UniProtKB/TrEMBL annotation, chain A:
Keyword Coiled coil tagged: no
Pfam families, per database record: TctA (PF01970)
Taxonomic source organism: Paracoccus chinensis
Protein's UniProt keywords contain Secreted: no
Domain DUF112 per the UniProt entry, residue ranges: 20-439
Transmembrane region(s): 19-49, 61-86, 106-132, 144-163, 169-186, 206-223, 259-282, 355-379, 391-408, 414-444, 465-487
Name the UniProt record assigns to this protein: TctA family transporter
Top-level taxon of the source organism: Bacteria
Record-linked InterPro entries: DUF112_TM
Alphabetical keyword list: Membrane, Transmembrane, Transmembrane helix
Automatic annotation (TrEMBL), chain B:
Alphabetized Gene3D superfamilies for the sequence: Bordetella uptake gene, domain 1, Periplasmic binding protein-like II
Keywords assigned: Receptor, Signal
Extent of the signal sequence: 1-25
InterPro entries associated with the record: BUG (IPR005064), Bug_dom1 (IPR042100)
Transmembrane segments: none
Protein name: Tripartite-type tricarboxylate transporter, receptor component TctC
UniProt KW Glycoprotein keyword: no
A Pfam family matched in the record: TctC
Lineage, uppermost ranks: Bacteria, Pseudomonadati, Pseudomonadota, Alphaproteobacteria, Rhodobacterales
Similarity-based family: Belongs to the UPF0065 (bug) family.
CDD domains documented for this protein: PBP2_Bug_TTT
Length: 503, 328
């Protein structure tokens, strides 16, 4: 079946009224799940799973997928308005989205995030249709050494994110890396920093960390200034509209973010959190005035949001073409198919083309629905800022606790949110960037696992990082990047001494 | 009209429950309230799907809701811990994989329970062997040529598992010891990762869940050299049994399993009733078919059979853990 026939076939599946209905339910639910801090697609999908027993597998998959990519839209809302990331993927959106909201440009920031999410998703669907075969082959070509080298590049490239003081940034990345080592050592089974607590054997809960660092810390911080809070003035329609300047600033970041997200999404196990961080780092690097970042640069919203939405779409490539789920949420969706007696695997595309193409078409429909749903909602979201803090913040704390609990039904994780939140507040007092801590935490375990796995596979020979072409490429780019920034620092110093010499 | 009636029944039920006279009645009317089943893995995971396949008909048979409590973490250990902590007399049970009952006592520090003392076996639900899988283009074609390739030099063959101390790891080491070879262990987090690595040519082999390997066998990218159970497995009927091949012991048998357990101290009559219901559910052809689709073969049997199985496997895997511990 050619892609064209497949698409036509997909329309005949996805345009059935009942299937459309499940698509609508999925994306609407996804949006709201995404907006609520802490409660992510994972919790929503596992709650919906029992319902899928009673509907067709196509409807089930389309609905669950809708929740998944819909939550990526909603995630940005609380990040921008309240500096509380709705999902870990949108944590990076707080860096510039929140300053924009503080400057009275909340509407524009939300518009930028919705638009770039939409464009990123639609382009990623095109990538999915055209390059699915190539991407799935690429996914199997990536070995442990390649992943390790790629993640190191990511860490180096992103380590300038959201920090004016390099030493502070370095400290936060390192702290994140250290937190990432908590739990069972994959190679030896040894317990690291678990202090005999069974709940810590699987490491620190990512949702608890993100909610504590950003959410609780922000709430505590605001309690101190709550009295001084002036009610934000009414937002007029004009303020929602981006200027022509905004639009042109958004264009390239959106496209670059889409490209990054499409690629990283398709690799099993890397995912959308990393692509949004990398997109931010990239925009900051290529920007003519990098100092605008962190102070409300619209590029810092558009790029990462395009990236995480594109990644949410291409994440289906290994899942559907190889039957290899890239993350736990994808594994859940495949679980929904298994319940219906469909064995996901490389043959699924041939055996059940209706499933694959129906889903692809539903992505298009779902994203269009999300845009139509979300643009009018912007005004409502912004007016949320006028809810008095004494109502808003307790509600947020409740949602965050629910979110942390929902990951595995553990009361321990709620206590973890509180403890991390306190730590996060102290860090924010000292102006440390929680985003960099989160980055270190996400990348650290991936680097460690893949580095050690690569060394095991090579029987202890580090040359594996230079012998494999993909890994060698990443190592080379990393070295160039470090050399460049050293050269820049040195030249600036030289300039300064010459300058003072003339005086 | 209906409201007072319901209230009357409720009051009556409460009175019976509280009355000291009702000791005999309680046994006869068990369960007196919702039954809670603790699962040590998240909703939607394979152990969870399997548990729900049983709990749904169980609720109908018991006439009370059966609530699945997902308490995930530490390879299923947290589910068992939470079941024991619940202290809900005769109404807390657990569905667990073999690990927390057999190997965790050796592998998990601060386990918090003693299987022999704290756990009452109820019924074995289902078993699954692992299959030895390789990429199609790999040279070995059967167990004999695989062992030959592995003998060429120590660690000539690398294999992936789903983690240190996992069933996949221990089974591979049991095999290696029986065959007298040394293989290189590469731990991964999931069969999805093991599959990618085998297909990408990074590692050579893996002892995998049949349903993880099967789709790739059908696509022609993977092949199965053998199955670790004593009998052929219906999901992969063509795969030869490893036992007895190429000089391996004829009783070579390694299986993963799922079972229903209760806290020690649960009323024996309650355990017997639950065991009867579970055996009836497992006898249903439709349930058997659904289990097999997921890669599990329905088993059943008496609580004592499960108890014996726990003892045998604890000794079997304990010996493997001793050996690889000594090798490190």
């Amino acid at each position: 079946m050619t892609a064209w026939e497949g698409l036509l076939h997909g329309f005949s599946v996805a345009l059935q009224p009942t299937v459309m209905l499940y698509c609508v339910i999925g994306v609407v639910l996804g949006t709201f799940i995404g907006v609520l801090p802490g409660i992510g697609a994972m919790a929503a999908i596992s709650l919906l799973l029992p319902i899928t027993y009673y509907i067709t597998p196509e409807s089930a998959l389309i609905m669950l997928a809708g929740v998944y990519y819909g939550s990526q839209y909603g995630g940005a809302v609380a990040s921008i308005l309240l500096r509380l990331p709705g999902t870990p993927q949108s944590a990076v959106t707080t860096l510039d989205g929140y300053p924009m909201a503080r400057q009275g440009r909340a509407g524009v920031a939300l518009f930028a995030s919705m638009m770039s999410s939409f464009v990123g998703s639609i382009l990623a669907i095109v990538v999915l249709v055209v390059l699915a075969g190539w991407l799935s082959r690429a996914a199997t070509q990536f070995g442990a050494a390649d992943y390790a080298a790629m993640m190191v590049l990511g860490l180096v490239a992103a380590s300038t994110v959201g920090s004016d003081a390099p030493a502070k940034g370095f400290a936060m990345v390192t702290l994140g890396l250290i937190l990432g080592t908590v739990g069972t050592d994959v190679n030896s089974g040894t317990q690291r920093f678990t202090f005999g607590v069974t709940e810590m054997m699987d490491g620190v809960n990512l949702v608890a960390l993100a909610m504590g660092l950003f959410g609780v810390a922000e709430v505590i911080g605001n309690i101190r200034s709550a009295e001084r809070q002036g009610t934000p003035e009414r937002v007029t329609l004009r303020q929602l509209m981006p200027t022509r300047n905004d639009l042109s600033r958004m264009t390239w970041p959106t496209l670059r973010g889409t490209a990054l997200g499409s690629f990283f999404g398709a690799l099993p196990g890397t995912g959308s959190t990393i692509s949004s961080f990398l997109s931010y780092a990239m925009e900051r690097r290529v920007a003519r005035q990098p100092e605008r970042f962190g102070n409300g640069a619209i590029e810092g919203v558009a790029g990462p949001e395009a990236a995480n939405n594109a990644a949410a779409i291409t994440a289906f490539v290994p899942t559907l073409t190889l039957g290899i789920p890239g993350d736990p949420i994808m594994a859940l969706m495949l679980g929904a198919l298994v319940i219906h007696g469909i064995q996901p695997g490389p043959m699924m595309l041939e055996a059940r083309p209706d499933m694959f193409w129906g889903l692809v078409v539903s992505f298009g429909i779902g994203n269009l629905l999300l845009l139509i749903l979300n643009l009018p909602l912007i005004g409502i979201w912004v007016s949320m800022l006028r809810i008095p803090f004494r109502w808003l913040y307790p509600a947020i704390i409740v949602f965050m606790c629910m979110g942390a609990w929902s990951v595995r039904g553990s009361g321990f994780d709620i206590l973890a949110v509180a403890a991390i939140g306190l730590g996060g507040y102290l860090l924010s007092l000292a102006r440390f960037s929680p985003a960099l801590l989160l980055l270190g935490f996400v990348l650290g375990p991936l680097i460690e696992t893949n580095l050690r796995r690569a060394m095991l596979i090579s029987r202890g020979d580090p040359m594996i990082f230079l012998e494999r072409p993909i890994a060698a490429g990443f190592v080379l780019v990393t070295v160039v990047l470090i050399a460049l920034s050293l050269w820049n620092t040195w030249r600036r110093k030289l300039d300064r001494t010459e300058h003072s010499g003339h005086m | 009209m209906t409201l007072p009636t319901r209230r009357t029944i409720l009051t009556a039920a409460l009175t019976i429950g509280l009355s000291p006279l009702a000791a005999w009645a309680q046994e006869a009317t068990w369960p007196t309230g919702p039954v809670h089943v603790y699962v040590g893995f998240p909703a939607g995971s394979s152990p969870d799907t399997l548990a729900r396949l049983i709990t749904e008909p169980l609720a109908q048979r018991l006439g009370q809701p059966v609530v699945v409590e997902n308490k995930a973490g530490a390879g299923g250990v947290i589910g068992v811990q939470q079941m024991l902590a619940a202290k809900r007399d005769n109404h807390s049970f657990g569905v667990t994989i073999n690990g927390p009952l057999t190997t965790s006592a050796r592998l998990t520090p601060d386990l918090g329970y003693d299987v022999a003392q704290d756990i009452a076996p109820v019924a074995l639900l289902a078993t699954s062997p692992l299959v030895l899988a390789m990429a199609t283009e790999a040279k070995p074609t059967d167990i004999a040529s695989f062992i030959e390739a592995a003998r060429a030099e120590p660690e000539a063959i690398s294999y992936g598992s789903v983690g240190q101390g996992s069933g996949a790891h221990l089974t591979a080491e049991l095999f290696a010891d029986a065959a007298g070879v040394e293989m290189l262990h590469i731990p991964f987090a999931s069969y999805a990762e093991v599959t990618t690595s085998i297909l990408g040519g990074e590692i050579d082999a893996g002892f995998m869940a049949p349903s993880a390997a099967l789709p790739h066998v059908e696509a022609g990218t993977m092949k199965i050299l053998g199955v670790t159970s004593a009998e052929p497995f219906p999901q992969v009927p063509d795969a030869p049994v490893i036992a007895g091949q190429a000089g391996l012991p004829a009783d070579f048998n390694a299986e993963l399993w799922n079972a229903v357990i209760a806290p020690a101290g649960t009323d024996p009559a309650v355990i017997q009733r639950l065991n009867t219901e579970i055996n009836a559910i497992l006898a249903d052809a439709e349930v058997q078919r659904k289990l097999l689709d997921m890669g599990w073969q329905a088993q059943g049997g008496a609580p004592e059979d499960l108890g014996a199985r726990i003892e045998v496997d604890t000794a079997l895997w304990g010996a493997v853990i001793d050996r690889i511990g000594a090798a490190d």
